[in-house]
C-alpha cells in the first residue's frame, strides 16, 4: 500500500452525519469546530500518508461509556469490510479486524485484573493498573510491521485470557482509557482523537449500556462512577490536551426543556499542523457561517437545526468553529 486516506470517516460527523433521514426526526444538535489555519487548506477532511512499509497508528481516548467501541465499529466499517474479532481468537477478544484496519482495545493491557484492582484498591483508570511498557513495545512493534502476541482482558471474568496474535494492519487503532497518557506511546501516534462526553450524557450512555449488556445494577454503576471520578479527572480527562481531534458531546442549548440525553450538541475541534491530517472547513475557508433554517420546513419544533462555523478557542489555541445542529434519535 502506498497511500491511505480516511476522508469519509474523519469528516467525522461521527455517528450523527447530516442525512435526510436524520433531519426528519429532530433529536440531536450538532456543532463542529476546526482550527482556523487548517481550515484554510482545503475543503475535505482527511488523514493521508505514505505508508509503504509501516502501519499508521491512530489513538482514540475516552472514559468508559463514551462511545469508543461504537465509534470504532462505524469507522472500521466505513473503511471497508466488516470488522470482526481475529480468526481463531478466544470468545472474549476485544479486537476488531477489518480489511485495512485493526482496532485493539487497551483494556487488554490491564496489569491488574479485577481481583487485583480490588485488593490494591485501585481503579482501571489508575496507571498502576496498566502495563504501559508492554503497550508501548507492542504498538511500536506493530507500527514497524512486526506481529505481536497481545494479552486479552476478559470483561466477563475480569481476568486475563491467553494472548492473541495481532498482525500489523495498514491502519491500527488503539482505543481505550489511556492511549495518550504515556509520552512514548503518544510519540507513535499519527493521529489522536479524544471523545469528550459531558457527564450527563456519558452517565446516561454508560448506565443504559452496562445495565443492558453487562448485567450491572443501577446502584453498582452509580457506585462505580463515583469511585472512578477522581481518577478520571486525574488520568483520563487531561489526555485531551494532547489530542489532534476532540469531539465534545454536550447537552443542547437549543431546547431548554428537553432532557440532556435526548437532544445533543456536538463540537469538533481539530488542531492545526498535524502531519498527514487535513481538517475540514465548511463552504468557504476562513469564513463565518451561521444558518438556522425556517422552522416551518422541519418536521420538528423550531429551531430543530442550527449550523455555525467561525472562530473559537481550545486550550488557548485559536480554532474555528463549525456548528451544525439537527436532530436524530439513532445513536450509531
Ligand atoms: N454516538 C452516539 N450517540 C448516541 N449514543 C451513543 C453513541 N455512542 C455510544 N452511545 C451509547 O453509549 C453506549 C456506550 O458506548 P460504547 O461505545 O460501548 O462506549 P465505550 O466503548 O467508550 O465504553 C452505547 O451502548 C450507546 O448506547
Ligand atoms: O473502564 C473500563 C474500560 O471498559 P469500557 O470502556 O469498555 O467500559 C473497564 O472498567 C476496565 O477495563 C475494567 O473492566 P471490568 O470493569 O470489566 O473489569
From TrEMBL:
Query: What species is given as this protein's source?
Result: Musa troglodytarum (fe'i banana)
Look up the record and name the pathway of this protein. Carbohydrate biosynthesis; Calvin cycle
* Major site of localization recorded for this protein: plastid
Q: Which CDD domains match?
A: PRK
Nucleotide-binding in keyword set: yes
Name under which the protein is recorded: Phosphoribulokinase
Under the cellular component aspect of Gene Ontology, which terms does the record hold?
Answer: chloroplast
Q: Spell out the family assignment given in the record's similarity comment.
A: Belongs to the phosphoribulokinase family.
Q: Decide whether keyword Kinase is in the record.
A: yes
Enzyme nomenclature, EC number: 2.7.1.19
Q: What class of enzyme is it?
A: transferase
